[in-house]
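Practice problem: predict the structure.
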Amino acid sequence: MKPILDSSRDVDKSDWANRKRPGRYIKWLSLSLMSFMALMVLIIYEARWVFPEIQTYFSQPGNLTGQQLATRSRHYLQDAQARLLDMPGPEERAAAITDIELAYGLFDVDVYHQQYDCTSPSLGVLDETVTSLESDSVLPVVLARELLDPIACLTRIEMGQLDRRAEAINTFSERTRWHNQVLIYTSLLIFVFGLLFWWLHERQLRRTEKATQETLRWMGRAMRDPLTGIGNRSALHQDVMQQAQQLLGLVLVDIDFFKQYNDTMGHPAGDALLRNLVLLIADALPEEATLYRLGGDEFAALLPCEDIDALGRYCQQLHQEVQRSAFSHAAHPDKKQVTLSIGATCFMPSRVGFPRAYEAADNALYQVKTAGRDDWQIIAVA
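Answer:
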C-alpha cells in the first residue's frame, strides 16, 4: 500500500527539470574548456618556438662557420710564413704559394668583408705576396713579415666571431628565459581562469540543482494533502492519465457523519481520525494501491483491477477492517463507532475516460448513503 504519492511522478518532474536546465550553465563550462585549450595551444607554440630559435642562433655562418674559416685560413698563413722563414727552395716556395692561396679562399667570404674592415687590405697583401713569390723578386723573409698583418686580421676575426657567438648564446638564453617566464605565468593565469570558470560552472550547476529540487518539492506539496500526506485530487487525475492503458479500480470512501464527529469531538480529534483512517485504508487495500484525499472526509484509492470480483473483495475487506477497528463516534445516530460508505468501479482510462469512471463510483457511493450508509457498492461503467 502506498499512502503517499507515487515516486514515478517525481522522476517525471525531474526529467522535466532536466529538459529545462541545458544551456543555463553551459557558458561557464565552455569558457573553462576554452581556457584549458588555450593553455595547450600556448604550450605547443612555445615548444615549436624553441627549435627554430636554436637554428637561428647556432646554424648561421656568421657565428660558427665564420670562426672556423678564419682559424683554418690563419693556420695556412702561419704554415706559409714558417716555410718562408726557412730560406725555401723552389718546392718550399710552391708549397708556400699553395698555403697562401688556400688561406685566401677561406679568407675571401662576404661575412668578413661586411663586418671587418681589415679583410680587403689583407687579401690585397696576400695577392701581392703570391705575385712576389712567383716572380722571386722579394726576399722570402720580407714576404714572411708581410703576412703578419693578414694573420693579425684573421686573429681579430676569430675573436670577433667568438664574441658574436657568445652574444648570440646570451641573447638566445635571455629570450629562452623570457619565453619560459611568459609560459609559466601565462599558463598559471590561464589555469587559474580555467579553474575559476569551472568553479563558476559547478556553482551555477549546484544552484540549478537546488532550484530544481525546490521546484520539485513545491510541485510535490502542490500534489499532496498537507494533513494526511497522501495525494490530492490533482495527483489522482495525473496518475490516471499515466496509466491510461491499464485496467484500474477506483474506490471512493466517505466517513459517515463526519461533521457530527467534528462538532462533538472537536477538529483536532477529527484530524487525528482522518490520519488514522488513512493508515487503516492503506493496510486494508493491496500494496499497489495509491490513496488520495479529495477534500473533507472523502478519500479515493486507485489500484490495479483484475475484475469486478477482485475489486469487491477489496471493498469488503476495507469495510470489515473499519468495523474491527471500532473507532469511537459518540455522535453517530445509529452506532457508537466510525463507519464508512464505499463506492467503486473498474475501468480503463483510454477507453472510458476518468470523468465517466468517477461518476460511476460516485453513483455507487450515493446508493450506499441513500440505503443507510456503512456499506459498499460497485457500479460498472456504462
